[in-house]
Amino acid sequence: MSVRISAHDWVDGGTTPDDAVEIARAFKAAGADMIDVSSGQVSKEEKPVYGRMFQTPFADRIRNEAGIATIAVGAISEADHVNSIIAAGRADLCAVARPHLANPSWTLNEAAKIGYFDVNWPKQYTAAKSQLERNYERERAQAAENARLSPSERAQRAEGTV
Ligand SMILES: Cc1cc2nc3c(=O)[nH]c(=O)nc-3n(C[C@H](O)[C@H](O)[C@H](O)COP(=O)(O)O)c2cc1C
Q: What pTM was computed for the model?
């Protein structure tokens, strides 16, 4: 069973990240398996501080201080974000919402971008899979080559003079 909480109400007198650790401990004692760590949307007076992965610090604290599995959510928009959060032990899962509204193929696209090919595509879409993977492979090879060039060589390449 997972429980979603507001780990920070972003308003005076509301829940703080310190409170959230205690709230998570109480849910753990009551039998919850996992805390889905969101924040806000409980007061019109709230002043949230948005930014990339802005709620992940709350998931990190709950996981590591209360000792319960967490789901990180909020402005997680790339597979690299997900992998860094999981690898650093800041959460057990990441949930991605709005990027899927902008691009329903977000997961397929991100997998190709990081070179992870063992993904099932809908049968009707498989013609696009290898093309996308090839394009990203080319981009990665180009980026690796650019990284080896000096700044002046890079400028010449951009101008098309070499
Ligand atoms: C259209 C929409 C509806 C949502 N409805 C709810 C909801 O009913 N309850 C809730 O806790 N979060 C809701 N959320 C918040 C998402 O679960 C998620 O926490 C939030 O979008 C931040 O993640 P993201 O940056 O990946 O979108 C909603 C988000 C969107 C975009």
A: 0.89
